[in-house]
Amino acid sequence: MHAEAVVLTPASADYPSALRGAGEAEFPELWILGESTLLGHDLLGLFCSTRCPGDVVLRAYEAARALRDAGIPVIGGFHTPMEQECLELLLRGTQPVVWCPARGLPQPRRLPQPKRDALAEGRLLILSPFAAKARRMTSELAERRNELVAEMAERLLFLHAPPGTKTDALRQRAVARGKPVFSVAELAALLP
């Protein structure tokens, strides 16, 4: 595990293969903290709009538990309230998790204990396309981060993406690029 932040460039052996080619120009530098080999997994991108109706919340919890229990490697920004809840559930499992904050990398000592534990165990990788000077999340950084997650993931799971939201726009762009996209109702197709 990398105990300190490492910068990956397209020349780095650990630079994600999913970004090779067109993604190299879009993301010329990536900062990581944790086990870089987690980038070699077939990652499932997880997204959820900020506001969720109660029935979606219940299905999202069930989906996160199912992904955890199936050991499916997941990547996400884990910023919206439901995404944060999903991250907490995923960190109780043993599968790889890649967390992409919409700012520079956090200091490991400031992480909550479950994240520090998962990082120390080599199950969590923190990855950011932003230098340390990006200390506060903005909507622009969040959109760029979400594009990174969508590019790095083999498949995408949208727990909730109502029409007209930025999450729905991201889903539509992914579909247009030919990325396999699933809704929470289609979760069974993602499980072994």
Task: Please outline what is shown here.
The protein is of the alpha/beta class and 192 residues long. The chain contains 6 helices and 8 strands, in the order E-H-E-E-H-E-H-E-H-E-H-E-H-E.
Number of helices: 6
The geometry reads as: globular
Largest sheet strand order: 1-2-6-5-4-3-7-8
Q: What can be said about the biggest beta sheet?
A: 8 strands, mixed
DSSP, total strands: 8
**What proportion of the residues is helical, as a percent range?**
25-40%
Please describe what this structure looks like:
The protein is of the alpha/beta class and 192 residues long. It is 34% helix and 19% strand. The chain contains 6 helices and 8 strands, in the order E-H-E-E-H-E-H-E-H-E-H-E-H-E. It has helices spanning 22-26, 54-70, 81-90, 113-120, 139-152, 166-176, and strands spanning 2-8, 30-34, 44-48, 74-76, 97-99, 124-128, 155-160, 181-183. Strands 1-2-6-5-4-3-7-8 form an 8-stranded mixed β-sheet, sandwiched between helices. Strand 7 (155-160), helix 6 and strand 8 form a beta-alpha-beta unit. The longest helix is centred in the N-terminal third of the chain and has 17 residues, at 54-70. The protein starts with a strand and ends in a 9-residue tail after the last strand.
